[in-house]
Each structure stands twice: as structure tokens, then as C-alpha cells.
Amino acid sequence: xxxxxxxxxxxxxxxxxxxxxxxxxxxxxxxxxxxxxxxxxxxxxxxxxxxxxxxxxxxxxxxxxxxxxxxxxxxxxxxxxxxxxxxxxxxxxxxxxxxxxxxxxxxxxxxxxxxxxxxxxxxxxxxxxxxxxxxxxxxxxxxxxxxxxxxxxxxxxxxxxxxxxxxxxxxx
Length: 172
Ligand SMILES: [Zn+2]
Prior knowledge:
CATH class of the largest domain: Mainly Beta
Largest sheet: 6 strands, antiparallel, barrel
CATH architecture of the largest domain: Beta Barrel
Shape: elongated
Order of helices and strands: EHEEEEEEEEHHH
Strand order of the largest sheet: 4-5-6-9-8-7
Bound molecules: zinc ion
Strand content: 35-45%
Distance between the termini: 50 Å
């Protein structure tokens, strides 16, 4: 069951949930209290987000984009060790080419070489499928929340608004 919040200032609904910004709001987020924003009067207030069904500000879709890459990787799990090439990467997982035999649902620790001179990114992942296309891994939760992975994915993604804004007409 969900309830609709109304703005405590102007009593209108259509309130949007925001992201925590101030230290106080970050602390509040730990107990499921989120900042809300009223588009009618711009009032900002904190409220419990539990049992509230509200549209959130648009989520950054780049987090879910699959990007074509070519990264060396090694992986290990149980007695199996292997290496291969990552062909496709997203925050949720990756597709690799490898000669090593793996099975669906096997869990491995992957080490992805993100760049020369950088420590490999270590992430636990489960084999989702094995096909002619390659081995599809799904990152376990810690990997999906990895800040380093996010930074890497975002850096590989063209069309970053923060970089291209105000530069209309730059030749590609
Ligand atoms: Zn309001």
C-alpha cells in the first residue's frame, strides 16, 4: 500500500522525491527519511519514504548502459582459474570471451584491468549464461554499487551532459 504526500506548505500533491544533499539529509536517508520537493511552491522538506509511492527524479540511465569495451580480465572461483576479454560492460554485469569452461550459476571473482598502471577492479559475479556470444556475468551487489565501476562506465559513455553542455557546434 502506498500513500501520496502533500506539500506541508501549500497542501498540493505531486511532490517529488529528491536525493539527499546536506549532511543532515544524508543522515536522515539512513532511516528512510528522504528530502521531498514541491514543484508548486518549491518547498523542500523531509519525510519518511517508506510506503510512499512517488516518482523520483529521473535516474541517471548511464548507470545501466552497456558499453562495448576490450579489457583484459582474469577470474577465479573454486578450482577454476581463467582469463579472457571483456567485450561489453555495464553496472549490472559484463560479457566476456574466454576459453575457460564455466557453468551457469558459478560464482567467480573477476579482476578487470581498467587501464595501464591501475589496480584491477575486483568484483564478484555469477555466470548468467554461456553462449556463442560469450559468457554473461551478473555482478553481485557490491559490484553493482562499485564507485570505481560507475566512474569507469561513465567515463566511457559519450554524450555526457556535464562535458558537452554549452558547446554546441563542436565538430565530432
Ligand atoms: Zn508546496
